[in-house]
Amino acid sequence: MTEKIIFRKEALEDYLSSLLGARVEVTSLREFKRDETGGKLKGFGYGKPVLIEFTHEGKKGRVVLHTMSPDPFGHERLPDRASSLLLDHATFNTLPRHVRSLDVGAFANDGSFVSLGDVGEFFLLTDYAPGRLYARDLERLLETGELAEGDEERALALAEYLADIHAVKKSAPELYRRRIRDLVGHGEGIMGLTDSYPPDFELVSKGFLEEVEKECISWRWRIKDKVHRLSQVHGDFHPFNVLFGEGTDFILLDRSRGEWGEPADDLSAMSINYIFFSLQRYDALAGPFQRLFNIFWERYLELTGDREVLMVVQPFYAWRALVVASPIWYPNLAPEVRLKLFKFIENILATEMFEPPKVNEYLS
Q: What CA–CA distances, in Å, run from 102 to 29, 83, 183, 273, 283?
């Protein structure tokens, strides 16, 4: 059923009065159909244009209020629809003979109108979060090669947290397909990463990156209909977005790309870092990093019983490996580490069932 837009006549008049700089009286409000006249004030469905007729300084005026409905074409989430409408407002008036955009705004929860037409860049204001980045723990292990008290408990706590949030499911096939599509084609996804590699980067060829894209497109078709897997996710669950306090108490930063997605996203984002840091010390997954990698995966699988994730994590690992191997994100990384990561990408995409104990085979 189409969700209704409910607003008060008084709120609409106040908004238009503020926009036009003089008092406005709304005389008619109806779904916009050019061959229809008259109408009553009521709630309208999202996505249907509304014709507003009014008087202003003794003159009659007409405007059309446009909204968007969720759809599976990149508008599943509220921010998607906001982005589209903001773009409309920014571009309508720059094209000759185009209908003018007067404003862009939002509906407040109380039914009033919020104008956004005169804004510049947006911002986000958050609480201050105390704590120490989990990445600092991994940097310490890179230097010492020895597990400290609490290291294993923290890896287990992270796995347990993911098992908890991934237990929350949602039935929305279009959102799952969107997430898998974005994994491959979005600017923050695989194709965005491959495009970011310098064209003259001597350690990896354009041909290799092209093959990675092709393989990941094949993986998209293999997994995009596993819509039953849609789960609550963080979306960027890596050691630079986890702040630990005392013991295993932690808080997260920078949730990304929406509430719902594939659990393999979070699992790969964290666990690729055990591989990444280990390669810098051991040229393999070894020592304390191997221990943390293994118990992280073992605990998650024990709690969830989700063996299917081992058949969908491959393109997510390819994406995360492209990130940590990137000369843009990590310009000072040793060539040997990058080459191991590229080999990991090649081998993981050729693997039907990911087996955590075989990571060193994928690296070789």
A: 18, 17, 36, 48, 60
Cβ(267)–Cβ(233) below 8 Å: no
Give the tens place of pLDDT for each residue, 273-300.
999 999 999 999 999 999 999 999 999 9
Given a contact cutoff of 8 angstroms between Cβ atoms, the answer to whether 186 and 326 are in contact is no
The tokens describing 162, both together, are 């993911």
The secondary structure of residue 310, as a DSSP letter, is G
Tokens of 44: 């309208």
pLDDT per position as a tens digit, 232-276: 999 999 999 999 999 999 999 999 988 999 999 999 999 999 999
What is the distance between the alpha carbons of residues 153 and 131, in angstroms, rounded to a whole number? Answer: 17
Cα Rg of the chain (Å, integer): 26
Residue that the structure tokens 């064209």 belong to:
199
Torsion of CA 68, 71, 76, 81, to 10 degrees: -20
The pTM (predicted TM-score) of the whole model is 0.87
Q: All domains of the chain, ordered by start, with CATH? A: 4-115 (no CATH), 132-363 (3.90.1200.10)
- Identify residue 303 by its one-letter amino acid code: L
Q: DSSP string of 212-274?
A: HHHHHHHHHHHHTT-GGG-EE--S--SGGGEEE-STT-EEE----S-SEE-HHHHHHHHHHHH
Planar angle of CA 230, 216, 80, nearest 5 degrees:
50
Question: Two tokens at 354?
Answer: 């990911």
Query: Among 250, 237, 235, which residue's Cα sits nearest to residue 154?
Result: 250
Read off the amino acid at residue 143.
Answer: E
For residues 257 and 167, is the Cβ–Cβ distance under 8 A?
A: no
